[in-house]
Amino acid sequence: MSSTFDTVANIISETCDIPREKITAQSHAIDDLGIDSLDFLDIAFAIDKAFGIKLPLEQWTQEVNEGKASTEQYFVLENLCARIDDLIKAKGA
Amino acid sequence: MRLEYFELIDRIIDIDLSAGTIRTEAVVPHESTVFEGHFPGYPLMPGVLLCETMAQTCGWLSMAKLNFTRMAFLAGFKEVKLRTFVTPGTLLEGHGQLLHEGSGFTRLRCQVLAGGKTVCDSELSMRLMPFLNDAFKAMVMDRAARLSFPFAALESPEANNA
């Protein structure tokens, strides 16, 4: 988890020009860091490449829009990193 | 190429879904109202329209990759380089390469060549969204047919896995 978080935080910092020290595991990518959907495409691209996965952004967006999930479940960084770890595990299974 | 209708591609030469590549071509028109302003007495193809040529090339590849289940919209350019002037009558060839197919987006690299030399290149992001409605999709498919889109490429196993 910690190495996943470090990688994700570095990606966000470099992609969105956000000081690294402002990015914590509890940061909400949208509400706290001000990342919009366009910036998140670049972040998703970098995350997909770094971990060899495909973040299911369309599914997450649909779940949020339909009220089946909260944005916190996917966009608070510790939760995002947990989902990345799950995807990495699923890939190796 | 019909600048006034924002049609920057004349023909899709070929598409290879397994390799994630596309080639397109277009001839810059000899006359257009665009050249009356850009520039009077010195007509040059505007750089933003060269960028649009890259976007349309990559858009067709992105939609084909998903078997036309999504519409592709330009989301961003990264490190665009406009390397030389392009004048009326020039035959352009667009080369697109899929770098990554994400969930709801693609990342691609594209270059436009004239006479074998690169005139512009960039990395692009395309956002992929459901078609607005059936009529909109029919319009896109009609335009694909007019561009000689190689529909046989969609019947490959690669396309059917999309």
Automatic annotation (TrEMBL), chain A:
UniProt-recorded Gene Ontology molecular function terms: acyl binding; acyl carrier activity
Cleaved signal peptide residues: none
Pathway per the UniProt entry: Glycolipid biosynthesis; KDO(2)-lipid A biosynthesis
GO biological process: lipid A biosynthetic process
InterPro entries linked: ACP, ACP-like_sf, PP-bd_ACP, Ppantetheine_attach_site
SUPFAM superfamilies reported for this sequence: ACP-like
Pfam families: PP-binding (PF00550)
GO CC terms: cytosol; membrane
Transferase listed as a keyword: no
Keyword Lipid metabolism: yes
UniProt entry keywords in alphabetical sequence: Fatty acid biosynthesis, Fatty acid metabolism, Lipid biosynthesis, Lipid metabolism, Phosphopantetheine, Phosphoprotein
Ranges for domain Carrier: 2-88
NCBIfam families recorded: PRK06508.1
Name of this protein: Acyl carrier protein AcpXL
Species in which this protein is naturally found: Blastochloris sulfoviridis
UniProtKB/TrEMBL annotation, chain B:
Residues that span the membrane, as ranges: none
One Pfam family this sequence matches: FabA
Domain of life of the organism encoding this protein: Bacteria
A GO term for molecular function: lyase activity
Cross-referenced SUPFAM superfamilies: Thioesterase/thiol ester dehydrase-isomerase (SSF54637)
Protein name: Beta-hydroxyacyl-ACP dehydratase
Gene3D superfamilies xref list: Hotdog Thioesterase
Keywords on record: Lyase
Coiled coil spans: none
